[in-house]
Amino acid sequence: EIRMGEAAGPVLGEVFSRNFVPGTSVTVFHDDSLWLAEPEGWVEIEFDTPFEYRAGTHLLIEVVHDTAQPGFFTWHWETGEPRGLLGYGPDAEKGYLCTDIPHLLLECSQAGLEACTFGRIKASF
Q1: Euclidean distance between CA atoms 40 and 50, whole angstroms
Q2: pLDDT of 92
């Protein structure tokens, strides 16, 4: 499951539910049977529900996976600030802060925007 919404600020806290601005969390993808076993290159996931990013806000992306799967493994980049939050299990209420976050490529099909990584999006502000 992937949820997207507006973050309450530029730095995350340890409690998952307090990081989303109330009413902004949207489940954009859900598939209990998706299995990503050692993919080559970028994995493309088409959202079930469109998400509209409001310019100037802090985008929060939450990836939830079943604990039966080994994890959500991607290349990461170091942010220098606690911008990542890891928890154990889909029902975890709290996690531990980390300063590295996964490389994600967000492709915008509307507004004629160029596809780019989340890091590049953040660096442009």
Answers
A1: 26
A2: 79
